[in-house]
Amino acid sequence: MKIDVIGDVHGCLNELKQLFTELGYQWKDGLPVHPDHRIPVFLGDITDRGPASVEAIRFVYRLVIESGQAKYVPGNHCNKLYRYFKGNNVQEKHGLETTTAEFKNLSKHEQREVKREFMELIDSSPLYEVLPDVNAVIAHAGIREEDIGQENKRITTFVLYGDITGDKLPDGRPERKDWAQHYQGDRWVVYGHTPVYEPRFVNQTVNIDTGCVFGNKLTAFRLPEEETVSVPSTMPFVEEKFN
User: What transmembrane ranges does the database entry give (predicted)?
Assistant: First the structure.
């Protein structure tokens, strides 16, 4: 097995397609196919903030569900959109408002299709993906070594939101502890969630959310090669979003 783990897309569909081309994928019927049968793995947060969240949903759905050519795990933004589609009382802010604005501009038929596809994508996908063939675990905001192979409410919160303390930073974001500093596992943990300028390698972990939607770049991590590949963002640069 050879995989390309793709960082937080956040509706940046043009950059995603450019990244696939940069990774050597060829386009067949509008989908990327690699001549060496590499498997794309999306690590969550495919929607919100960027310009093409609805198209990103449909694109990833075709790749993961219809064609079976890719894998996907959800992020916190995915979880919030899922709860919105279920009719839960969620606040349309922190990026969700851009996705719901796109969604409300669709016809009723298109709305039903997008909602069905997204909910099927979530329902059909694991909370995190364990891939023994490449000695890796793909989890949106990371996972502790001792939690790999388990699932409960605490682990779900960690995987979606990171090692949150319950406190807020001055800008309103949740305060998070740097769990990767304490990771001692021998499996790769590939994650995103927290924007960084460059892929961040700590112990056997790598954060590949290089903040495409905030104007930096979109990054993939290739296994077993242990290489990163990035393409530049077309979005305005927002410096304060990077740690």
Answer: none
* Residue 167 vs residues 158, 179, 195: alpha-carbon distances, Å: 15, 16, 19
pLDDT digits (tens, 9 = 90+) for 208-222: 999 999 999 999 999
pLDDT surpasses 90 at 175: no
Distance CA 185, CA 135 (A): 11
Per-residue CA distances from 211 to 32, 166, 216 (Å): 22, 24, 5
Burial class (CB in 10 A: 0-12, 13-18, 19+), 76: buried
User: How crowded is residue 23: how many other Cβ atoms within 10 Å of its Cβ?
Assistant: 17
Q: Identify the band that residue 176 occupies on the pLDDT scale cut at 50, 70 and 90.
A: confident
Residues contacting residue 21 through CB under 8 Å, at least 6 positions apart: 27, 32
Could you give the CA distance from residue 127 to residue 141 in angstroms, rounded to a whole number? 11
Q: What is the DSSP string of 1-37?
A: --EEEE---TT-HHHHHHHHHHTT-EEETTEEE-TT-
Which residues contact residue 198 at a Cβ distance below 8 angstroms, ignoring those fewer than 6 apart? 210
pLDDT at 46 over 90: yes
* 243 confidence band (pLDDT: 50, 70, 90): low
Contact 209, 8 (CB under 8 A): yes
